[in-house]
Structure of DNA-binding transcriptional regulator NtrC:
Amino acid sequence: MTPLPTILVADDDRSIRTVLGQALGRAGYQVQVTPYASTLWQWVQEGEGDLVITDVAMPDGNGLELVTRIRQIRPDLRVIVMSAQSTLTTAVKATQRGAFEYLAKPFDLKELLAVVARALTTPVQEAEKPAPAPTPEERLPLIGQSMVMQGIYRSIARLTTSDLTVMITGESGTGKELVARALHEYGRRRSGPFVAVNMAAIPREQIESELFGYERGGNLGRMPGRFEQASGGTLFLDEIGDMPQEAQTRLLRVLQEGEFTTVGGSTPLHADVRIVAATHRDLRQAIQAGIFREDLYYRLNVVPLRLPPLRERREDIPLLARHFLAQCREAGGGYRMLDEEAMTRLQAWRWPGNVRELENLIRRIVALYSQETITAELVDAELADPLASDFAPDRQQVAEPLVDSVSRHIARYLEAGREGMPLHDLHARIIAEVERPLIQMTLTETRGNQIKAAAMLGLNRNTLRKKIRDLEIPVVRGVV
Ligand SMILES: Nc1ncnc2c1ncn2[C@@H]1O[C@H](COP(=O)(O)OP(=O)(O)OP(=O)(O)O)[C@@H](O)[C@H]1O
């Protein structure tokens, strides 16, 4: 009988050690747990264990540093890193140092068990051997700690070790260009150029020569296009849905053959670029409408990355708002802070222009007002000013049906229940989660006028008042 695989677990949090020890034991593995990085290192040196699961910050050492050392002395021993400091930098560092997988805490036990099974059964590839020394800088390019952003960090981290074509989708202002830059800056081609081309910003008839270059008359030779400029680096094709048909056909040929010719030229040139494309359009609809080539779509959509709208990750709003305030401060805008109610207002807003809209709002407030504390009244006034907003309704996307997002949340609760989280008052909790933003946003809309809000909601005024009290919704009358 083959012995059971042994898993070495290092985490200074006792509850994590207990939960992992039990779950892995139940799944049929042998488990050794320790709160110390040094004990883990000792076990690894002694040749123990078939798999390592380690935390990052431990009292006597750093799990990420251990990954490098473990991979050096035992390249076949896989390491899964788990961390509560779920930033893009941690994910990239873990992956580039050769961790098999990176999991942001809190994680799903089922997911962990699936990763463990994969780590123990997939044969170790040459490509997994330690990567060249990484140089990710500590300044964070992407802000956000929500579950969805953590998923994005993991994908970006994984994609930095390959040249696969990536298709980023997401509404306007969700950070598509920022993600494309991160893929480049942390990736294998970081010493090459990053060239961005926005299809919507170039006259249609010039797109082909812009991308592929053109032959100039006489003996003048050719004018290089963006493909050539990006050689050795990354070519970011923004608003790919706006690419004219002829350029689509040419691009498809480049992707198929790895070569291109300039407009009017005949010598094939080798295309040495990593392509990252982005769009805020629904390309499937464009395909149906016959304006986007389906074959090109499949060539580009090798790895799809969907950036969620800001309203789907409201928990990131305070972090982002503080980040933009800090940026304003660095630019000489003086010290400002948002009071609690102002922050609540920001979290309740629907953000049709996503992170860009939030960034612009903070900049506008810092520029227009000199008071140190930014209040809810001030935020309300700026949010309600239609002239100040660059986000006219025709730029807004069709929102996801409410039933879909509610169902997703309920499914998450139920799943957590199956994982062992005690579920009680589920009905009341879900109703409150829907009711609170409904009432809060209606009040923002009516600038705190409860009579108007009650009319809009179709509620009796006393009922509304009671709900405001029960749900602990802050009541502030707006500036008119
Ligand atoms: N997660 C984030 N952390 C910090 N800043 C962000 C984040 N996401 C977006 N931003 C900022 O928001 C602004 C818009 O981002 P970006 O240009 O990348 O969006 P986009 O999706 O490419 O928009 P569009 O589709 O309109 O071109 C930028 O100034 C960017 O720095």
Q: What stands out?
A: DSSP finds 20 helices and 18 strands in the chain. Residues 142-144, 170, 172-178, 238, 280, 355-356, 359 surround adenosine-5'-triphosphate (CB under 6 Å).
